[in-house]
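TICKET: design request
STATUS: open
ATTACHED STRUCTURE:
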């Protein structure tokens, strides 16, 4: 099979971390998270930080082209220094996992005013 076909089959990887911060520390952790993500370059495809309403619990979702790209970006000293500042803000070590995106569904475009809406 051609390399183009194998490239087409290549799935995005997602680094997911689920954790809880000490009381009132979520906004400080968010600021550090934004700094850490700003250091990412090659292979980085986007990130989300989710917060459970009225709590200090959250989920980080970071999209990567490959595990090698993720590892290289996370090994940068600047990134590691930011994580060292974030670590004491956690109540406990976050649960971390690596996942493959096996299904991605984009919203359908509406014909009304060119507005994009979710498929009904």
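STATUS: resolved
RESOLUTION: sequence designed for all positions
ATTACHED SEQUENCE:
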């Amino acid at each position: 099979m051609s390399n183009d076909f194998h490239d087409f089959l290549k799935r995005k990887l997602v680094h997911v971390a689920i954790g809880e911060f000490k009381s009132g520390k979520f906004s400080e952790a968010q600021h550090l998270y934004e700094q850490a993500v700003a250091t990412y370059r090659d292979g980085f495809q986007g990130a989300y930080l989710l917060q459970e309403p009225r709590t200090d619990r959250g989920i980080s979702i970071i999209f990567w082209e490959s595990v090698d790209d993720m590892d290289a970006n996370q090994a940068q000293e600047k990134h590691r220094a930011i994580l060292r500042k974030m670590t004491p803000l956690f109540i406990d070590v976050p649960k971390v996992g690596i996942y493959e995106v096996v299904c991605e569904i984009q919203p359908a475009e509406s014909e009304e005013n060119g507005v994009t809406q979710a498929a009904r």
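CLOSING REMARK: The helical segments are 3-9, 26-38, 67-74, 77-86. Strands lie at 13-20, 44-51, 57-64, 95-100.
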